[in-house]
Design a protein that fits this description.
The protein is of the alpha/beta class. The protein is built from seven helices and eight strands; from the N terminus they run ββαβααβββαβααβα. It has a five-stranded mixed β-sheet, covered by helices on one side. Strands 2-1-3 form a three-stranded antiparallel β-sheet, sandwiched between helices.
Amino acid sequence: MTKKKKYYVVWVGAKPGIYQNWEDCQAQIMGYPQAKYKSFKTLAEAKDALAGKPSDFQNSKESKSKKKTPLNHEGVNWKSISVDAACSGNPGVLEYRGVHTKSGEEIFRQGPFQKGTNNIGEFLALVHALALLKKKGAHQMPIYSDSRTAMAWLRNKKLKTTLQRSPDNATLFNLVDRALSWLDSNSYENPILKWETEKWGEIPADFGRK
């Protein structure tokens, strides 16, 4: 099957613009602080996106149009933090972030990291949120994640990943080591809750790149 062509918009990076393959896009965002980018199916969509603001395309309009039934957010604790990760490839370029669940306002964002996995990003996002809330004294604020794997790793204080350490992902694994050390040295009371995607839609921290 022929792979469908994508167009990559880089709003914030070494050289903002539209790129016709992932390798060229990656060269603009790798190691660039707070890089902002997204893929589009057509050149016309990419041009429109480049002329706009990244925040206008944070959540995929296409995904919203495919919802067949209205979302029921009953049961969501809006006074919480939601976390998520995005990884282009497996392994691939990884980012993770945390947002206020109700407003979607970004609280923290880390990456991009080379040769990571989505599960590792989800795990790091959870620990990052826990450490941040403990520092702020918000010991009861819940944290939502849509990754059962990351939640299990957090609960067991152990990663079950097949990803091998290498010079390319040394920075990422340094963060993993620090996260595990933090868990060994700290306790937390914050409820870690599963975001019910089928019922509530994409988690508010979703990067909107599906």
